[in-house]
Amino acid sequence: MNKVVWRAAAWLLAVGLAGCASSGRPTPAPLPQGTPTVGVQAAWRVTLGGNTHGLIAAVAANEVALAARSGQVMVLSGRDGALRWRVQAPAPIDAGLGFDGQWVAAVLQGNRLVAWRDGKLAWQAPLPARVFTPPLVAGERVFVLTGNRQIMAFDAVGGGLIWEQKAPSSALALQAPGLLTARGNTLVVGLGATLWAINPDDGQPLTSVPLFAPTGSNPVEQLADLVAGAHQAGPLVCARAFQRGVACVDAASGQVRWRASQSGAQGVTGTAALLAGTDEQGAVQAWSLASGQPLWRQTLLAHRGVTGPLALGQTLVVGDAQGYVHWLSQADGAWQASMAGDGSAVTAPPQLVAGSVVTVSANGQVTGWRPK
């Protein structure tokens, strides 16, 4: 089987055949009922419009950058949803967005990296392969992780290529957002199931830590790419390996502190005390950040297509494929509240922006939720 077919198989596996109707699929759990124990309201709503499925919003400087697949891009105030600027990209968007408060970067169909500043298109640059991971904008640079595991750094001002590194190729790649983030002055990248620390100035690898070893009899079963959404607390960096589990690494020593098995495809969140994630069945799980010991597992939202969580105060917030946003207690996972959106799926984890919990529906409704 060729690489294209393997990658297609990986993508279908990652989304769980979400676009296909099947009488054999589990029935989503009913909407939780009861008296809410936290008060939440929609403080503001903005219509982005267009399909946003799979596009992750980017947060910086009390603002949020969002995009639709059709190419609509906008930056809003997280405080009240006020529009900062809005543009139409020159082509549909494949992966996005990166945002540092000034520059917004996205990858367009046709493997083109583009950047805007203050709503004006600043530059475009060709890429050697398709991209599924949102670019990272940091330190006046735009970092890109391609689908064939190539890492590139571009000058944010002019778009010139600064450096590139090619990781060992793989017969199979997960066609979903991968791990690309920063830790202080270090670039943190997921290449397969290995967490890499890279010098952002020259692209030279500093350390690499395998989080999980390949298992299974074929490349699909062995796929364990690290997915977008990592948690950093003190010396720890915690991440999820697709269909394997979660792990926390001591960044100072380069040693894996603990691992926990959990099949899933969503990133993780946490606090100074716990790590939380969702599994492929829609259960929300919490572990002790220090030891990895399970703290609780909430199955009330089973098969509802739950997103990765947001840790907020004493709560965890998740969206679901029915368009609802749910609040759970960090202490024990107990349900606290559910709020309805526009009826289309929430496909990316909620984001905290200037005191608002921001969710984006698949149909492009952007909502800022706040306590009553």
Plain-language structure description:
The protein is mainly beta. Strands 1-32-31-30 form a 4-stranded antiparallel β-sheet, with no helix packed on it. The protein is built from 2 helices and 32 strands. The chain is 5% helix and 45% strand. The protein has helices at residues 3-15, 219-222; strands at residues 40-47, 58-60, 63-67, 72-77, 83-88, 93-99, 103-108, 112-117, 120-126, 136-138, 141-145, 150-155, 161-166, 180-183, 186-191, 194-198, 205-210, 231-233, 236-241, 245-250, 255-261, 269-270, 274-278, 284-288, 294-298, 310-312, 315-319, 324-329, 335-340, 351-353, 356-360, 365-371.
Unreliable parts: 1-22
N- and C-termini, Cα separation:
55 Å
Shape assignment: globular
The number of distinct β-strands equals 32
How are strands sequenced across the largest beta sheet?
1-32-31-30
Describe this structure in a few short sentences.
The chain is 5% helix and 45% strand.
Could you name the key traits of this structure?
4-stranded antiparallel beta sheet; 45% strand; 372 residues; mainly beta; globular; 2 helices
Secondary structure layout:
Blueprint: H1 3-15, E1 40-47, E2 58-60, E3 63-67, E4 72-77, E5 83-88, E6 93-99, E7 103-108, E8 112-117, E9 120-126, E10 136-138, E11 141-145, E12 150-155, E13 161-166, E14 180-183, E15 186-191, E16 194-198, E17 205-210, H2 219-222, E18 231-233, E19 236-241, E20 245-250, E21 255-261, E22 269-270, E23 274-278, E24 284-288, E25 294-298, E26 310-312, E27 315-319, E28 324-329, E29 335-340, E30 351-353, E31 356-360, E32 365-371
Antiparallel strand pairs: 1-32, 2-3, 3-4, 4-5, 6-7, 7-8, 8-9, 10-11, 11-12, 12-13, 14-15, 15-16, 16-17, 18-19, 19-20, 20-21, 22-23, 23-24, 24-25, 26-27, 27-28, 28-29, 30-31, 31-32
